[in-house]
What we know:
Structural class: mainly beta
Number of domains: 3
Number of strands: 16
Order of helices and strands: EEEEEEEEEHEEEEEEE
Largest sheet: 6 strands, antiparallel
Shape: flat
Distance between the termini: 49 Å
Low-confidence stretches: none
Helix content: under 10%
Strand content: over 45%
CATH class of the largest domain: Mainly Beta
Number of helices: 1
CATH topology of the largest domain: SH3 type barrels
CATH architecture of the largest domain: Roll
Amino acid sequence: xxxxxxxxxxxxxxxxxxxxxxxxxxxxxxxxxxxxxxxxxxxxxxxxxxxxxxxxxxxxxxxxxxxxxxxxxxxxxxxxxxxxxxxxxxxxxxxxxxxxxxxxxxxxxxxxxxxxxxxxxxxxxxxxxxxxxxxxxxxxxxxxxxxxxxxxxxxxxxxxxxxxxxxxxxxxxxxxxxxxxxxxxxx
Length: 187
C-alpha cells in the first residue's frame, strides 16, 4: 500500500480493479478544509487519461510490474514474435497487444515487455530508434536545417515529419514517445 505522500511521476497503482500510471500530481492545501492531491492518471489497458482527486494521506495498492528484456524477431501474419534475452524462449504477441508500437518495430530491436501478474500490459520501446528513410520528396537546393519540414516514410512504415534536407536512404533517429525526428545518423 502507498499513500498520496509517496506519489511520484510514473508509478503504477491499482484503482477500481484497473492499472493506472501516474502522469502528474499536485498537492493542494486550500485555506479552508482538508488538503488533497489532484492527479492525472493513464489507464494502462485502454490508454485513456483521467483526472482524479484523492484526500491527503489516502492509501491505495501499488501495482508491481515486471519488465523483461525481449528481442523482436519477426512478424507472423497478425502476430509478432519476440525472444526472451535470457532463456531464448519465443513469445507470440497479437497485433492488438502491440498496438501503436508496431510502427517502430524493426528486426532484432530490443524492447521491454511489461507484465502484471503474468498478463502483458505493454511493450516499451527504446526512447529512440534508428530507421532508414524509404520514401520522401527530394530535397531542393538551398534547403536549410531551420527551414520547413516534409513527411518521410520509414522502413517500418511509420511516417514522421523531417527537415527538407533529408533524402531517401538516409538513416535518421526518431523519438518513439513523441514521433519526432531527432537527427540524421552518419555511419
